[in-house]
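B., you asked whether I could sanity-check this one before it goes into the benchmark set. Here's the sequence:
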Amino acid sequence: MAAEPGSPERTDASDALLRPVRPLNAFEDTVSRLLQTIRLGLLQPGESLPPERDLAARLGVSRDTLREAIKSLAEAGYLVSRRGRYGGTFLADELPAPTGDAARPTRADIDDTMRLREILEVGAARMAAGRTLTATERQALSGRLADVRGADSADYRRLDSRLHLAIAEAAGVPSLVPLVAQNRMRLNELLDHIPLLARNIAHSDEQHDAIVAAILAGDADTAAETMAAHVRGSATLLHGFLD
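And here's what the prediction gave me:
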């Protein structure tokens, strides 16, 4: 039986989930924490979220970040915002189904894909930054980055994939590219099960800029660290929506 709002059981569980998030992926972690709270039944249909100021403080994020997360989940159909004296943010009466047509992936599916992605793509970014790139390779990276920056939502994942493949190519290990491509195909299948969030795209674009800048500057540590944060942000959203 679900705990009544305000009961010790509900408060303890909420305290465990609504704790400070990691700063490098504050938006994605905030979305994931709110989704965990929803999926575990700590919020009932029609029940309101804690006040914005309190919730932002508990998560250790700015109110702007919290608002972006709430807006994204409202657009995805999980939350409803109401104005007026009795306004606030409320859990939707009916939660949306996953957007993909294929069978819902398991946590093991997500972990396998994302851990392999981290091994492949963090290594690729580090190796690319450690090489002296040709003018053609530098131009290819900059061009793919510009393509993603200008992509509309319908074409975003395709152009995002092309950028990540260009980074793999810049690593200078030909056999790496098909491995990244295969992993990317599986990643896109997983991403098809969750909504495309505008704030996540903006954050991804910022990370893409930082990764490519570090590669072009020959800063292997920053390239690898930023790629790792980028990969983990995607994993956080997938687990948040699908676990």
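One thing to flag: The mean pLDDT is 87. Otherwise nothing jumped out at me.
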